[in-house]
Amino acid sequence: MKALWSIRLRLTLWYVVLLAAILAAFSTGIYLTLRHNLSANLDDSLRNRAGILLDIVRYENDRPTLEGLVSPADPNVGEHFVRVFDADGAVTFDNSAQAGQPPVDRERIERALSGKSSTGSLHTDDDTMRVLAVPIQRSGEISGVLEVGLSDEDISETLRTLLLILAVAYPTTLAVASLGGVFLASRALAPIDRITRLARRISGEDLSQRLDLALPADEVGRLARTFNDMIGRLDAAFRRQRQFTADASHELRTPLTAIKGQVEVALSRPRGADAYRDILSGVNEEVDRLIRLVGSLLTLARADAGEIPIAWESVNLGDLVTSAVNQVRPAATRKEITIGLEERADATLQADEDLLLQLLLNLLDNALKHTPSGGQVTVGWDTDADAVRFWVGDTGIGIATEHLDRIFDRFYRVDKGRSRAEGGVGLGLSISRWIAEAHGGSISVDSSPGRGATFTVVLPHAADRAAS
Ligand code: ADP
User: Does the N-terminal or the C-terminal CB of the chain have fewer CB atoms within 10 Å?
Assistant: First the structure.
């Protein structure tokens, strides 16, 4: 909640700071534009006024004047004035008394006398006047200066009003926008709040719950869905883990119960040496099974933990198959099963030789276990540009379609009793699949009941080692 609040706060703060900057730039722009336009208008008015007055200037003793031409009874008197100077800069007409008698800017008058018009500001006691001084021309000669002034009180008033409006509108807009920002941020973050509350309800023990949210496919909706998918994967992983522990305990208990039974039989009464030997060899078989089971469990546990390093080296598949076949040949001969080789190409790949040998032995062992006497087991290999393929086929009992997907699962056996009788613990194919995948490859089976089974392993020539 605290973090959520801080996101909300941060969002709002950013929003307000940005808005404050934009509003400040906008207000400054409006103010400066208006001031510039109003000043330009005032200067235009001054120029118009000067143009009209220049046309009616008359001369008294060769000195320009407007005496008797400009009415003193102007309704807006006080807001403007006219002064006329002769060629020496002496005043010949002045009606600025009511406009507060602005001081004469000698420099501007001199400049006008030298032929250059100029504008500027003059301050009276209670006003500021915008003034324009223009030279008066008589037959090409500068005969004096006309100075017109207009009060810029209106401009200052307008600008003051604008400033007042901005001073009120700026903080008000910011305050309203901040409230809007808080509201929007809260609205946008509300689903996250709901997700947090729901997620808190999903406990480690019960991962079957999901974030049941009718959210649109936006960022938050995607977050909730990703979260749901993650819980789904965790749920499946925990289920597998629980199932594995239950299956492993069960598998461990079976041989232990058998050992216990045989030991109790041995202890029930004194027996002869042969009877003890029989019992001990039975116990020995169960201990062998336990050792195999614990060995397989350990392999899988270390594989799951990523603790089995892959010793990559160049492996010749032909040599590897020969070595595996040689190891199982005595068992095959005992069962009168022939093993045939089907080499289609000379294949070499980067792999862990020991692990590949274990994989091959698992497949050969299964093939021999599930093929009756007189049957045939075939091992073949092939290669193409991308991968190496090898397969172990048999003419045995085969596997029904409904089991094909599951035989690679841990502890899954089609016929539990039969598998146990033959020493199987139901982990061989799980380990085989892990070995294939650790090499960046895959394992698959093709089989139908009564028509044998063929397990095919596909491995890339050089797996991406970082992935394994
Ligand atoms: P197990 O220790 O039982 O052999 P595996 O994981 O190696 O365990 O095999 C799982 C199950 O797949 C076996 O119990 C068996 O039912 C079936 N299976 C494996 N290989 C073959 C095969 N070549 N022919 C028929 N069934 C097979």
Answer: N
